[in-house]
Amino acid sequence: MHHPNLIPDQRPTCAVHGMPLPRAICSQIITGMKYCGHAGECQHKRQPADTGAAIAAVNAAHAAGDLNLGEQPANHINGVRVYQMDDCDWVAARSRDEAINWHYQHCAVDIEDIHELTATELDSLQFHVDDSRRGPTISFRERLQQIIDNGEQVPDLFASTEF
């Protein structure tokens, strides 16, 4: 997807007024807004910087899901997602396969039908900060941000109802 609102105007500009030609007025324009007939390129014309590589990088990051342009909240933080493995356990991992492998190694249960949490679920599900169900809670998104900020190991068990 191309995002024109992120990309500066690619039209040549006039060094005299900085406006895209032919809307600029300089000494090369005569009465009636006609060009003076100057042979060759306008001496005031400035070409914009080549932003092709930058545009390609923005589009690639957006396609990979690593860039949120404000369209909707992301369901990951820095590529780390939360997967619901069963009725009890959630695993933080970078991919579905990584979550499945971690869960199998630590729980010896082969699970294929897992669910990647949506952005809405990350914001609505509550994480209990301590071992009491009556204690304070934060959203799953806030807990995921803590994991990223603290450099905690991923993949790992994110949450469980078995406590």
Task: Map the helices and strands.
Elements: E1 13-14, E2 29-30, E3 34-35, E4 45-46, H1 52-63, E5 81-84, E6 89-93, H2 96-107, E7 115-116, H3 119-124, E8 126-128, E9 137-139, H4 140-149, E10 156-160
Antiparallel strand pairs: 1-4, 2-3, 5-6, 5-7, 6-10, 8-9
Brief digest:
It is built from four helices and ten strands. Helix content is 25%, strand content 18%. The strands form four sheets. The protein has a four-stranded antiparallel beta sheet, covered by helices on one side.
Shape designation? elongated
Q: What order do the helices and strands follow?
A: EEEEHEEHEHEEHE
Question: What characterizes the major β-sheet?
Answer: 4 strands, antiparallel
Task: Evaluate the radius of gyration.
Answer: 27 Å
DSSP E strands, number:
10
**Count of discrete domains:** 2
Helices and strands: which structural class? Answer: alpha+beta
| Major sheet: arrangement of strands | 7-5-6-10
End-to-end distance, in Å? 44 Å
Low-pLDDT segments: 1-7, 30-37
State mean pLDDT (0 to 100 scale): 75
Could you estimate the helical fraction of the residues in percent?
10-25%
Oligomer, anyone?
single chain
Count helical runs. Answer: 4
Proportion of residues in extended strands: 15-25%
Detailed description of the structure:
- The structure is a single chain.
- The chain is an alpha+beta fold and 163 residues long.
- It folds into two domains: 4-63, no CATH class; 81-160, no CATH class.
- Helix content is 25%, strand content 18%.
- It has helices at 52-63, 96-107, 119-124, 140-149; strands at 13-14, 29-30, 34-35, 45-46, 81-84, 89-93, 115-116, 126-128, 137-139, 156-160.
- Strands 7-5-6-10 form a four-stranded antiparallel sheet, with helices on one face.
